[in-house]
Design a protein that fits this description.
two-stranded antiparallel sheet, 506 residues, 79% helix, mainly alpha, Growth Hormone, Chain: A, 25 helices
Amino acid sequence: MDNRKQLLTCGFLALIAAGVGFAIRAGILGQWAGEYGFTLTELGTITGGGLVGFGLVILIVGSFIDAVGYKKLMVIAFILHLISGAMTLCADFAFASGGKSAVYWLLYSGMFLFAIANGICEAVINPLTATLYPNKKTHYLNILHAGWPAGLVIGGLLALLAGKVPWEILMGLFVVPVVLYGLIVLKEKFPQTEANQAGLGYGAMLKNCLVPLFFILVLLHVLVGYVELGTDSWINKITGSILQSGSKGTMLFIYASSMMFVLRFFAGPIVHRISSIGLLALSSILGALGLTLISNANGTVLMVLAVTIYSLGKTFLWPTMLGVVGEQFPRSSTVAMAILGAAGMLSAGLLGGPGIGYKQDYNASAKLQEISEETYSRYKAPKEDGFLFFPKVTGLDGSKVKIASDKGGELGNQIAVLEKDGKKLADEKELAALSTWWESNKATLDVDAPALTEAGIHGSRIAIRLTAIIPATMFVIFLLLLLYFKAKGGYKVVELDENGLEATPK
């Protein structure tokens, strides 16, 4: 088509919008914890809820893309992006009227709806790109997905303003790329899917995927979702905790995303030399090494080196996995890519985000109890949280830890604003409770603060060290796939002839 560049740009901008929203959300988690009293596990569930919605929508939408068409679905995504932003921006109103529980469910629902829009985009733009560039799918899918780290960079830079400007302003800025991609959607004509061109129905496409190779790829993408998006939900907080500087954590996140953005434009030449599976194996081992180094890094220089290696590892994983599916299952690309994308997103949302949050809560609280039972009793959350079949844990109260970190500064500001508006502290029950708690416990801050810092660093290190097991496992599986394809004469791309039938692999 003569508008291939415009449509590729449309998908690129849609991923920028998703990346901006994701990065800003990661950057303001600390503010949400401080303002609303969330634990790390609760924050992980909020961020994970967005990814769960993302994954479910990819799976559902993928089943009827061929019937509805690319354009109509992108129009729906455009509208939902705008609505979801309005919901999230009502958080303060929900907190004032219904307290922590109300704002928790509003933020969870807002992120879920935001993720639905992202999921529709993801379900559409991957097979769309494969349709537009049938002979260079992996290369152009990597270029398309350079939009994601571009959004992370923009969002990360905006997140540096967290605490200096209202988080609602930062969260609302993702509307800019949304409007830009929406204008392209409304103007341009979209092609038919590869399955439509081949005359295949949904049943035939699904049947084509019922082979061992496809199930192995789905399993691998579950692991990719955990290690890439699940880790991205926490990486700037974890590195910031280890370096004892939230701004350094954010800057490292921006640096890593910038590397991803640039490198994804060069996937084609790398794949040409070592194949898509070879690139995935190399990426996995670098990811495992990078995460291990992050967990052990002391000082900014070593952390930058560790993040660099981790970034080299994770850069090509997601788009190259999609490229492999497009190359091996071209007659079923819409369904196959939808299943793969859904598996990755559901893994990130149900396992990665909450799981890494749980690991931090579990290890930080255990360390704090080891250091000082008295400090733990003062800062523990009011209820325990669990994750899958692992033991439940009572983590640390985010609001109380935030108050300790800034010596009650933000709490004082909130009370001052309340009084300036002519309201009484007693009218704000949760704020009043925190004020009472602080007055009772600030005398022990000299003892509590170092213990909280040590426990937080310990929790971060252990959480990221355990996460490194995932890409190490992926590396082993990719090596086995390399041996499988070598036994078949090497990795070859399956192409379709003019009748929609599989042509001789090249």
